Each structure stands twice: as C-alpha cells, then as structure tokens.
Amino acid sequence: MKALVLTDYKKMEIQDVPVPIITEDEVLIQVKACGICGSDIHGYDGSSGRRQPPVIMGHEASGVIVETGAKVLGWKKEDRVTFDSTIYCGHCSYCRKGLINLCENRRVLGVSCDEYRRDGAFAEYVAIPQHILYALPDEVDFNQAALVEPLSVAVHAADLSPHQLDATVTVVGTGMVGLLVIQALRAYGYGKIIAVDVDSKRLELAKQMGADNTIISDENALEKIRMLSGGEGTDAAFEVVGADATFNLAVNSVRKGGSVTLVGNISQKTNFPLQSVVTRQIRLQGSCASCGEYPACLNMIARGSFNVNPIISATAPLSEGPEWFDNLYYQKVNALKVILNP
Prior knowledge:
Elements: E1 2-8, E2 11-16, E3 26-35, H1 38-44, E4 55-56, E5 60-68, E6 80-83, E7 86-87, H2 93-96, E8 107-108, E9 111-112, E10 117-118, E11 125-129, E12 133-135, H3 142-145, H4 148-160, E13 169-172, H5 176-187, E14 193-197, H6 200-209, E15 213-216, H7 221-228, E16 234-239, H8 244-253, E17 254-262, H9 274-279, E18 283-286, H10 294-303, E19 312-317, H11 321-329, E20 337-341
Parallel strand pairs: 13-14, 13-16, 14-15, 16-17, 17-18, 19-20
Antiparallel strand pairs: 1-2, 1-4, 3-5, 3-11, 3-20, 5-6, 6-12, 7-8, 9-10
C-alpha cells in the first residue's frame, strides 16, 4: 500500500509499505480522509520528541472497514467508521473509572516515542482495535468525520471545566481547536465569548463560530478584555495555545475566583504566575484529549449543531502530503485544517 512516511525530520516520503496485518480483535480500515494535526507538524521537525522516524503519522481519520478479525463483534465490511486517536487498555485503574484518556497503557495512533511505536492513518489502510471504533451517521461525510477527534477534544474541555449558564469567557487562541472550543462553549450555554488571537482572519472565523467579541493579541489585549467584562475580567478562560504569553494572558483575563482551562500544550513548560493565581484564588484545570465524547460529537455534526466545514481549509490526495507538510511547517499557507484523501 501507499503510505506517507516521516523518514527523517523535515522529510516526508510516499513509500510502498506492507498492508497492516490485523489481530483477532482489530479491523482493517481503508482510509478515506486523514487530517494533518498541529501535533504532526511539531513531530515533523522532532521538537515534540513523539514522532521518531521512521513512522506513519496521522490520527484524525475516517474510512471503511474492509476486513475484520476473528473476535470482532458488531462490525462488518463496508461499515463507515471513525476511531479514537487514543488506544486505551480498558483494564487499568483509570480505565475502570471511565477515565480512558488517562489510561496507564495508552497508545496514540501515529506516535513513535521512547515508550512505544504505533503507525497511523496517513496511508491507504490502517489497523484499528474494535473498541475504539465509532459508526458514522449517514449525514456525516468522511472529511467531516476526520474532524471529530479535535472536536471531541474541544467538547471534553468545555464539559470538564467549571461552568454556569450565561458565564463570560475568554478563549485565547483561535486555531482549529480554539474555534471548536468556541462552538462547544456556545452549546454549553456560556454567555459572552471573547476570542483573542494574533491573526485577524482567524478572528473573523471565530465570529462565525459564535464569538461575540474578538481582540487582536497585543499589549492592550488584557485591558480590552476587562472593558468587555465589566472591569473585573471574565468568569472563565480557555488557553488553546500553550505558550508563556498566552498562558499568562488567560490567567490574568479572569476575575477573582475565576477558572482557567488549559488545552494547548505546544510548550513543555511555561512561566507560572504563582502570586496571581494564589492571591486571586484562580482555579486551573488541565484538559487531556477526549473521554468518550465521540458519539455525541458525531450526532451533533449530523444535526448541524456543530459546523466543521469552515475549518477545512483544503483537501488533497495523499501523494501531495510531503508538499503540504512543507507548506504548513514553513507557514507558506495560512490553513486551519488540511485533509489528505488516500
């Protein structure tokens, strides 16, 4: 089969590789769509340490089952499916509590690190355990289904966070996940949503997604947030970048007693504003991946409650994958989500 392989850092190649051999509890999926995630771009240059060459990346995907293992139940050939990016064990203490995103033995598709290696879905076929499969509603196409993984991340963050109806909220970072967070917050009944970013075009899209106000991230951003929230700051904030400046802006944007949910993690460490958090009694909440939100997200896309179409910047054949990785890494294009179609 054809696969897009990270053969060295900053080097992607289309190669002929063997079709995966499935185990008795796996299915073989013919991949129809796979999105390029920001984490794949950070893996492209080796900065994350979690995409060690050679590896087939890709974890935001959908397709059609073409083969089932001997112990697979409830799934058959030609079923249209998507799948979780996290392969959880189902047996550890966290899985038994329903916290599958915190599984002690979790494996992520398309990741090769010191602990494990698992090829992903930038290929014509991928092997997937049956317990992480989800059926696609008829109303959801393959490209839309490739966005269920990041949408589930956004919905998980919104659900995990302390929230109340009509609360004011700041969203720092309006990349793809930030835009989906805005939609999720609107669905959860938040009131005024203020979006902050350095990119004016993404802020325009944030308004389409449900933001009431948009602010360019500069030295006056905090003052503007407070002006829009009665002078005290918003009730909550979501940080969807993971860098020093955005983390500190999110913390300082909330009122005393407010909450900050941390979704972005492009940096391993940030400078922590300890006194601001302690003296203003700010609640910090980390949010990791998703935890069973896939079915709800699929149904909400099917009903039109979530609109993921504006987030898809481009679609391209798998053969153009090397060029698209180069374009995204060197920022030759301003794209939210590029989907490759094997």
